[in-house]
Amino acid sequence: MSKRTIQAEDLYRFQWLSNPVLHPDGQWVVFECMSVDGKQDDYETQLWLASTDGAEFRPLTTSGTSNHGAVWSPDGARLAFLSNRAYGTQVWLLPMQGGEARRLTRFRYAPGALAFAPDGRSLYALVPVPREPSVGDVAFWDEGLTDKEVQEKRDEENKEWADNPKRYDRLYYKGDGVGLSRKRVRQLVAIDVETGACRQLTWEPEGVSAFSVAPDGKSVAYTTNRRDNPDVNWWYEDIYQVSAGGGEARLLCADVVARDLAHSPDGRYLAVLGHGQELYQYWSAAHTHLFLVATADGGVTRLTGQFPDELGDATGSDMHGQVKSQPPVWSRDNRFIYVLSAREGRCEVVRFAADGSTPEGEVVVGGDRDDYGFASDGGTRFVVTYGTPTHPGKVVSTDIAGVTPRWRKPRAVTEAMDGPVPFFPEREVRLDRCNTWLDEVALVEPEPFYYKSGGDWTLQGWVMKPARYEAGKRYPVILEIHGGPQTHYGYAMFHEMQWLAAQGYAVVYTNPRGGTSYGQEFVNAVRHHYGEDDAADVLNGLEAALSQFDFLDGKRVAVTGGSYGGFMTNWLIGHTQRFFAAVTQRSISNWISFYGCSDIGPLFVESQLGVSDVIAERERLWQMSPLAHAANIRTPLLILHSENDLRCPMEQAEQLYTALKQRGAEVELLRIPNASHGLSRGGKPKLRVARLQAIFGFIDAHLPDAGALA
Predict the structure, then answer these.
(1) CA separation for the pair 65, 86 (Å, rounded)
(2) What amino acid positions are annotated as catalytic residues?
(3) Whole-angstrom Cα distance, residue 506 to residue 143?
(4) How far apart are CA 529 and CA 522, in angstroms?
(5) Peptide bond into 389 cis (omega under 30)
(6) Which residues are 642's β-sheet partners?
(7) Tens digits of per-residue pLDDT, 302-332?
C-alpha cells in the first residue's frame, strides 16, 4: 500500500523530544516529550525515562501539563523537576525507587534552572522577584492554601495587572512572547531538599541569567549585568562568585561576555560560552567562542582560537519544540569540553582540549543532521537528540570510543564546501519509540546544491521535489527565505515545507550571506547592508536551482518568508516582478517605526543596520525600508501577521497593507489573534494549522496555468 502525504493537521500527531539528562550511573536518561493537547488547543510536556541500552522506555510523569527541567540527585536516588501540577509551577522531587512525586516549594512566581548541590542536600534555582529593592525578596504562597485558592489568587493578581496602568522607566520594557514587563528579575536561591526552606543568595539589580555550582559545593558562579546604564550596555554578562552560605558576591571575570558556564570536575576552571574582544567588531553577528576562566583568579584563555565555525545551534525549524540552549559539558578527567557547533547547515558535537592543544576543534558526533542537544556520562557515552529533514527528532545513545575525530578546516567564502557528511559514529541505539506514524507518510528528502553569487562567494541551498513527483513533469516553485538573519536552514525538518511539497509544489530554500554556519565573514556580511548582496544571493540561488533541477518551472515561482525573511520578501517584490504571488510573514516594512516599537528596536537597528541616531539618519533608514518602495509592488501579496507580535509589531503589517491598498494593489491582510512572533514554532496549534492553510491557499489561488505560460 502506498504511503499517504503529510497533512497540515498532522501537527497534532508530532512528539517533540528534547533536553536529555543522564543518570549518574550512565544507564538511564530522562528527556522531555512535548505533544499537542487538541482539546485544550495547547501543548503538554511530560518526562520520559529510557535505558541507554534501548531495552526500556516509559513515561515518568503523567500529572500536570508542563513537566520539564529535570536534574538527577548526585546519588541518582531522586529526580528534581519543574511541574505545573499544583500551586502553579513548582519544584517537585520524585524518588526513583518508587512512590509519588513530592512538591518541594511554594514559590509565588515560577522557578527555573535547577541544579543539585554536590552533597544532594540542597537544590539551586532561579526564582523571579520584584526588581524594586524594597520588595526584592522571594515571595511564597501562604502555607495551608489549597491549590484552588492559589489559582484564584493568581487569577486575581493577573486581572489586577491587566486592568491597571503600567509605568516604566527602562528602555526595554517588553518582550515578544512574554508581554509587558512585570518588573521582576531572576535571583539565585538555595532550597533545602528535605524541608523546602529557601535562602536567597543574590539581589542583583538585573537578575541572574545562568549559574554553575562548584564541585566542592562551597560556592556558585553566576552571570549578571552590573554595568552602568544596562539599557545601553545590555550586552554584558559578567561572571560573579558567591558563597553557598551567602554573603557578598565577588566579581570573578569581566573579560568575557558570558552566556552559559560549567565548572570543571576538579573545580579549577569554568568552561564559558560567550564573547571576547570579537564582540566589539561584529556585535550581534559575532561568533560565540569557548573560554576557560580560572576560578581562583578569573584568568581567561580562549580555546577556540583557530576554530572557524559558530558554537551553538541556530538551525531553523518548526519542529524544535522547547529545546533549551546547550551548555558546555566536561569530561570527567578534566581533559575535554564538549559543545554544539554548526557547519554548512549541519549541527554536531565538537570537543576542545582544556589544555588548548586543539584550537581547531574535533567533531566527535554528527553528520548531515541537526544535533540539537546532548548529555554525556563524562566518558565516551553520549545521549544525543537530533533531527533530520524527514524526522522531527530522535533520542539515541552512542559511544565515541575508537571514533577518529573529524577536523573542520577553515574555508574562505569563495572556496568549495564540504559536501555530504555521513552520520558518525556509525553505531547508535534508538532510545525512544515516538513518531512511528511517520513510517506511513511519504516525506521528501531535500537535495543540497551549491552556487556562486556576488564576489564569487560559494553558497548553499536545498530543493525539495513534490511528494508525488513524476519524472518528466515540471512543477511550480515556492521560494522560502529564513529569518534572523543570523540563523540558517539546514538538515532539520520543516513541517511547513513538507506540507507544501505534499500539495504538489517544489520548494527551494537557500542560506544567503548573513546566515550562520558558514564562518565569521559570512555571518557578518549582511550587517549594515540589508537588501544588497543578500537579496542578490536569494535570487541567484533561485536561478541556480532552476538551472540545476529541470523539474522546476521557472515561470511559476512564488515567495514567502518570515521576520528577516518577511523583510526580504517585501524587499524583493518591491524591486522585481519575478514572482506570481508572495506571502510575507511577521515582516518588517518600516525601519524607522520598528526602531521605536519593537521589543529590540534600538539595539537591533544600531547593530544590524549601523544607525545610531534614528532622527539624524532617518533618510538612510527610510531607503532601507520596503515601505519606501511600495509603489513598485505589483506582485499579489498576502500579509500574515500576529497581533501580539512585539518583535516585528503589528503596525509593520498595517503600514504596508494601507500603502498598497490605497494604491489599488492586490493585497490581503491576515491578522492572527493571540499569537506572538513565534507563531510558526510555538503558537496555538489551531493557529499554526490556519497559518499553513493560508500560505498555501493564497499561493495556489494565484498559480498561473502552465499551459497559458507555454
Answers:
(1) 10
(2) 563, 677
(3) 60
(4) 12
(5) no
(6) 672
(7) 999 889 999 999 999 999 988 999 999 999 9
